[in-house]
Amino acid sequence: MTTQPPHPSRSASHLLPRGEKGFSRRTILAAPLALAACDRFASAEPSPPNVPPLKSIAPAPFGTAIKASQIDDPDWVALARANVSQLTPEWEMKMEYILADGLERPNFDRSDRIAAFAQAEGMAMHGHTLIWYAQGKEAFAGLSGAAFDRAFDGYIAAVAGRYRGKVRSWDVVNEPILDDGSGMRDCHWSARYGQDGYILRAFEKARIADPDAILFLNEYNQESVPAKGAQFLKLVERLLKAGCPLQGLGLQSHLWIDIPEGVIAAYMREISQFGLPIHVSELDCTLRTENRLDMRSQADRIAAQGARVTELASAFAALPRAQQFAFTVWGLRDTDSWYRQGDKDDGRDKPLPFDSFGRPNPIAAAIAAGFKTPA
Ligand code: 9MR
Question: What's the predicted TM-score (pTM) here?
Answer without folding.
Answer: 0.91
